[in-house]
Amino acid sequence: MGQHSGIGVLDKAVAVLRAVAQDPCGLAELCTRTGLPRATAHRLAVGLEVHRLLRRGADGRWRPGAALTELAGATSDPLIEASATVLPRLRDITGESVQLYRRDGMQRICIATAEPPSGLRDTVPVGSRLPMTAGSGAKVLAAWSDPGTQRAILVDAVFGERTLLEVRRRGWAQSIAEREAGVASVSAPVRDANGVVTAAISVSGPVERIGRKPGARWAADLLGAAEALHVKL
């Protein structure tokens, strides 16, 4: 269960949070990931759900809850602070889900989101870890990664080196049903004060609604949002 504080119930609760952060999961999988007895895992997950640290979807699986986002928002992270105004503005322009990703090794982590209030959405909870091998956000983060990281990603990626060259040339990436069937997305790089790409901002939604060329539709707005984040850093 990772590090131990000496406070048993706290360590177990943190183990449950970390397990769910890997991927949404039901009780059986939660027990497998944590090594906790079924009754203990269930009791902790339900308790964390009461405090909104976890939430349970219609499929019965637990996911990171809204309270985690609220707590994370209290930390001093300039990019997350800047996203609090930029992401909702982009969501309102597009009417679609907006995410902000950082790369962590061979994964990307969703660090901020803005969701439309209703309708079919591509919801990616804050804290979700997604692969670097598919999706427009992965392409952007891979395109501006160091050569060694790029080579490691490309071994299993659905895209190739030519795609990354094209992403760097035009300044944004798009994907159609790469990470998830029926979902399209477009992403752009976010640069820090020194001009280094440190994140990717994405717009995603159902292919049937945003079409098979989301870049043609949203790239300009997305690049504007990426620049707005850059200015605030």
Description:
The protein folds into two domains: 8-68, Winged helix-like DNA-binding domain superfamily/Winged helix DNA-binding domain (Arc Repressor Mutant, subunit A, Orthogonal Bundle), CATH 1.10.10.10; 73-232, Beta-Lactamase. The protein is 47% helix and 21% strand. It contains ten helices and eight strands. The protein has helices spanning 8-22, 27-34, 38-50, 66-72, 78-94, 136-143, 147-154, 161-170, 207-210, 214-232, and strands at 54-56, 62-64, 97-104, 107-114, 129-131, 173-176, 183-191, 197-206. A six-stranded antiparallel β-sheet has the order 5-4-3-8-7-6, sandwiched between helices. It has a two-stranded antiparallel ribbon with strand order 1-2. Helix 5 packs antiparallel against helix 10 (214-232) and helix 6 (136-143) crosses helix 8. It is globular, with a radius of gyration of 18 Å.
Please give a quick description of this structure.
Keywords: DNA-binding, Transcription, Transcription regulation. It is built from 10 helices and 8 strands.
Estimated share of beta-strand residues: 15-25%
**Shape verdict:** globular
Sketch the topology as an H/E string, one letter per element. Answer: HHHEEHHEEEHHHEEEHH
CATH topology of the largest domain: Beta-Lactamase
The residue ranges in which pLDDT falls below 50 over 5 or more consecutive positions are none
- Number-wise, the strands total 8
Distance between the termini: 36 Å
The largest beta-sheet arranges its strands as 5-4-3-8-7-6
Q: Tell me the Rg in angstroms.
A: 18 Å
Give the tally of structural domains: 2
